[in-house]
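ligand=flavin-adenine dinucleotide
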Amino acid sequence: MEKNALPSLENYLGKDLPDELTVNLKNLAKTIHSKQPLPFQIFIEAVEQAPIAISITDKKAKILYVNTEFSRVTGYQAEEVTNENESILSDKSTPRNVYYDLWRTISKKKIWHGQLINRHKLGRRYLADLTITPMLNADGEVSHYIGMHRDLTDVYQAEQQVKNQKQLIESVTNLLPIAMAVLDEYDQVVLDNHLYKALVSDLDKKEPALYFLQLLREEMGELWQECKDHLQGFSQREFRVERKTKSARWFSCSGSWFSEAATQADTFFSQESKRYLILTLTDITKQRKQLEELHLQSLKLMMTEDVRVRSIRETLLGAMHQIQLPMNQIRAAEQILQMKQDEQHNSLLQILQQIQQSGQQAIATMQNCIPSLAPTSMLPLNLNLLLHEVLLLSDVRIQSYAIEVDWRPQQQLPSVLGSENKLRILFKQLIDNAIDAMLKQGTEPMRLTIATACDEEWIYACVADTGPGIAPDKRSKVFEPFYTTRQDSHQAGMGLVMVKEIIDQHQGLIEIDNQYKQGCRFKISFPYFKN
Ligand code: FAD
């Protein structure tokens, strides 16, 4: 037959095909022809040239017709398989239940679709994607079956390779000693590893990656978008993560972007790509703790020195204050005697003047001996970090007296512009006072509450205890020099004076909360640092 000349229907429906099939096909040809103006031969040729292996069988799967593609896929020419059963293609590696399912379905006049292993004429196995459609006669009974199949081996291999690669990537990422997540352009996690999954429950954050993304965007500002646009990475950005009930943890974040060709059908011609971020989170809490320990040691030394200097200052100021009182009385007596201009008391006046002089000298000597405090610079500070440090400095006392600590830091607190050292001394003083007050009262439980908060203008810190509290009439006096509520105290009552002085130096405010009845609560506010 010439390639371009359409064969007559009779050529196909000739002596080779069984009568019943010929009748069926002729009827089908009439039906199609009545609906379609196209000659029936075109349909015949379409089947013959279709790029899918097509076979027509009788009810028992005896092959009556195969097209060209069938020969190409199976290796069998039409004359080699005609009158053979389709099982000529079967391979033992196909489970029996596949055939049972196939036959159960097509026997019920339903279409079956599935995959099975076929054997090529040369013995090679291939994966066949097979669809079998029952052909019904005029009585509605199955007269023949049409089988259509494709060799799926290459597709299957490619799919398996993708699966294997995915599994390999997952295994490798799961073995990584760091948490890792891959995020798409909408900040959705599309891939993560075991350590990242563990963080979800550990950090009390719904999606840890989103939490770190927010911190990174805030910290990096415009640099974030720049890095993203140029597919440049960032590395080792460290963040402290507060947790509600457990101790804080530190993470070092690194990331790099990569782009991947889009896979949606509508991007087939446009060659679009998608951008992904690989975010890695390394837990550096241990290293940070070691650094913190060292830092704490040096802080302790610094604070001890500071306390020594302050206690010398306190003692000297106290002594000067003590001397100043009788000196004032002597001065008054001297003025009275001078007004009398009585010669009889001249010698007494001289003695008083000498006492005055030596007194003034003593005060001047003491004044010269007052050690000065080390100067400090003003820096943007995170109150959470500072308070956490001060709590650690007081840890020995807190632990030994079994004091409960209720630590409530506000996440993402803006900075305060201040002197690190002075603010540390301030809070240490308040915490020490709180512990002293609770020990004195002996209330159970002894609870120290430290909290931070902020609004658009101010940053707040509060230190509360469950001690005896300060009586309302004494609340304004506690910030006066040498005032102490402690009867048995050897201290000069300068602690809160110093606290107030430091607060003033930071343009802050301090008050004792009148609403708090369980003990004493100091509320401190500092202006927000805006750079
Ligand atoms: P078989 O003994 O042939 O069949 C296994 C089981 O199937 C039997 O135990 C029986 O329960 C059931 N069964 C078999 N014949 C019938 C029947 N006439 N009526 C009801 N139940 C029956 N198989 C392939 O492996 N590859 C193919 O590409 C393929 N294409 C097919 C295309 C068509 C149109 C049809 C109708 C069948 C096709 N088959 C194909 C199925 C094939 O006929 C065999 O059933 C299958 O290959 C298993 O062969 P077997 O010799 O191992 O077992």
